[in-house]
């Protein structure tokens, strides 16, 4: 097996009497550390994207509210569809 960063090829075929060598344990440990580091990075990126999405949704909500306020008639005046012609 070859590690993601060119770690030495390590065979993990284990027979009944075979045990992992120190080199094999070190290679596996190194690969697990790299996987853990990648997962931590992905989690951090996910948190940043989640925060940006919340900001975008809040901004969109505020923009819609401002638009509604600009379009809505002043209090006490009927809306355009409510006016009755005499």
Structure report:
There is one protein chain. The protein has one helix at residues 22-71. It is 58% helix and 0% strand. The chain is rod-shaped, with a radius of gyration of 31 Å. The model has no long low-confidence stretch (mean pLDDT 82). The chain is mainly alpha-helical and 86 residues long. It starts with 21 loop residues before the first helix and ends in a 15-residue tail after the last helix.
Map the helices and strands:
Blueprint: H1 22-71
**Continuous helix count:** 1
Characterize the largest beta sheet: strand count, sense, and whether it forms a barrel: none
The coarse silhouette is: rod-shaped
Structural class: mainly alpha
Would you count the extended β strands for me? 0
Gap from first CA to last CA = 88 Å
Uncertain ranges: none
Backbone CA Rg:
31 Å
The share of residues in extended strands comes to under 5%
> What percentage of residues falls in helices of 4 or more residues?
55-70%
Mean pLDDT: 82
Listing every helix as H and every strand as E from the N terminus to the C terminus, the arrangement reads H
Summarize the entry for a quick read.
With 86 residues, the protein is an all-alpha fold. Helices cover 58% and strands 0% of the residues.
Name the descriptors.
mainly alpha, rod-shaped
């Amino acid at each position: 097996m070859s590690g993601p960063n060119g770690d030495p090829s390590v065979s993990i075929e284990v027979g009944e009497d075979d045990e992992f060598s120190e080199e094999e344990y070190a290679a596996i440990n190194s690969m697990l550390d790299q996987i853990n580091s990648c997962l931590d990075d992905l989690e951090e990126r996910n948190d940043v994207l989640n925060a940006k999405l919340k900001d975008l949704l809040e901004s969109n909500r505020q923009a819609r509210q401002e638009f509604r306020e600009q379009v809505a008639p002043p209090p006490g005046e009927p809306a355009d569809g409510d006016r009755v012609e005499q």
